[in-house]
């Protein structure tokens, strides 16, 4: 306990009262607020006189509270200043005691009460902050993972999302799917680098902008240019980039246009087995170079096709406790070994988590497009 008292007699009395009840307290005595500020880091409780050489009244209390951290503050007042004690509690002290009206037992009880009240206040504040953060994360997650706008004739779409180990640090993985009036289906999946509310908010911004651009009929080759401009203007610091994959499935589901901006290649699943989409037209992530350009790769789709789009959290899971990662080749092997497409996404997630021997470090999002028969 830190006693802040300039009257030597009162300081001796406090020590004697604590000794009288064998209080398990290590007492440090200072005479000014300035000295108290220097010693606060070692204190669980501060017993503060309101009349000190370098501070008077509540000013000294406010200075101590500014530096108290998790320490409880118990105020000492004189007989004529009892109203000041009530004011001190309103300012932030845990309680007050009146000089001359306390014995050792009452003093020890007051110290214990102040410490426990401060701990309860800290726990309540932390719970409230975590609840607010959880609510904010839920709102951001809904923005990152919307309800796709599909038509009855669109390819079937299944999606999964799994947060990484740092659950309160929501990442910037996002996806969307929109069917347009001409019968084609447009899908996007992306990943803003980093974790936290700023990255998640940026992912929401890009996802909503992508949907608006597609619905407004902007040419596909211009969509990524526009998204890059938006990213550069909206990112909260230099160096933030976004990997992204965009695919457009023709109305007759016989071909796809695929754009890759630094993103893992989708896995095309056909009768001959799964294979990664070639990266010959792959471009840089959004936000790396302001004049970067992206071109589409045209893929013919054979009857019975399916396509898996995913963020890198899926392939960056570890194999056991070592540094080895799953990687694209093993992902292809996992897909080839699992024949039932209706359970493929759940199988991949559970298998990757099992190989990682626990929750993945990064968020992951998966989209599975399947030809509508």
From TrEMBL:
InterPro entries: Bact_Sigma-Reg (IPR052016), CheY-like_superfamily (IPR011006), PPM-type-like_dom_sf (IPR036457), PPM-type_phosphatase-like_dom (IPR001932), Sig_transdc_resp-reg_receiver (IPR001789). The modification 4-aspartylphosphate is found at residue 49. GO terms for biological process: phosphorelay signal transduction system. Residues 1-114 form the Response regulatory domain. The keyword Phosphoprotein applies. PROSITE patterns: RESPONSE_REGULATORY. Keywords: Hydrolase, Phosphoprotein. The keyword NADP does not apply. One of its GO terms (molecular function) is phosphatase activity. This is Response regulator receiver modulated serine phosphatase. It comes from Kutzneria albida DSM 43870.
């Amino acid at each position: 306990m830190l006693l802040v008292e300039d009257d030597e007699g009162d300081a001796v009395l406090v020590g004697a009262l604590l000794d009288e009840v064998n209080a398990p307290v290590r007492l440090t005595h200072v005479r000014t607020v300035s000295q108290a500020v220097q010693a606060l880091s070692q204190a669980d409780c501060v017993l503060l006189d309101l009349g000190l050489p370098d501070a008077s009244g509540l000013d000294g209390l406010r200075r101590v509270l500014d530096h108290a951290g998790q320490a409880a503050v118990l105020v000492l007042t004189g007989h004529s200043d009892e109203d000041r004690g009530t004011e001190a509690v309103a300012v932030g002290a845990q309680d007050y005691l009146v000089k001359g009206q306390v014995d050792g037992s009452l003093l020890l009880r007051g110290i214990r009460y102040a410490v426990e009240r401060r701990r309860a206040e800290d726990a309540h504040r932390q719970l409230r902050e975590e609840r607010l953060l959880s609510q904010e994360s839920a709102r951001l997650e809904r923005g990152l993972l919307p309800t796709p706008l599909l038509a009855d004739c669109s390819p079937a779409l299944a999606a999964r999302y799994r947060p990484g180990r740092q659950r309160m640090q929501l990442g910037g993985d996002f996806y969307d799917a929109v069917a347009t009036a001409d019968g084609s289906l447009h899908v996007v999946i992306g990943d803003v680098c980093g974790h936290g509310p700023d990255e998640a908010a940026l992912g929401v911004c890009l996802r909503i902008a992508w949907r608006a651009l597609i619905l407004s009929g902007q040419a596909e080759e211009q969509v990524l240019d526009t998204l890059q401009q938006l990213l550069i203007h909206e990112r909260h610091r230099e160096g933030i980039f976004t990997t992204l994959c965009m695919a457009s499935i023709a109305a007759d589901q016989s071909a796809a246009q695929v754009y890759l901006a630094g993103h893992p290649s989708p896995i095309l699943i056909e009768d001959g087995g799964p294979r990664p989409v070639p990266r010959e037209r792959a471009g840089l992530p959004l936000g790396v170079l302001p004049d970067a350009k992206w071109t589409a790769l045209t893929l013919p789709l054979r009857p019975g096709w399916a396509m898996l789009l995913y963020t890198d959290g899926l392939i960056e899971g570890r194999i056991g406790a070592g540094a080895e990662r799953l990687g694209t080749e093993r992902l292809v092997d996992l897909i080839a070994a699992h024949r039932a497409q209706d359970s493929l996404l759940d199988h991949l997630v559970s298998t990757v988590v099992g190989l990682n021997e626990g929750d993945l470090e990064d968020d992951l999002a998966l989209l599975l497009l399947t030809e509508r028969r």
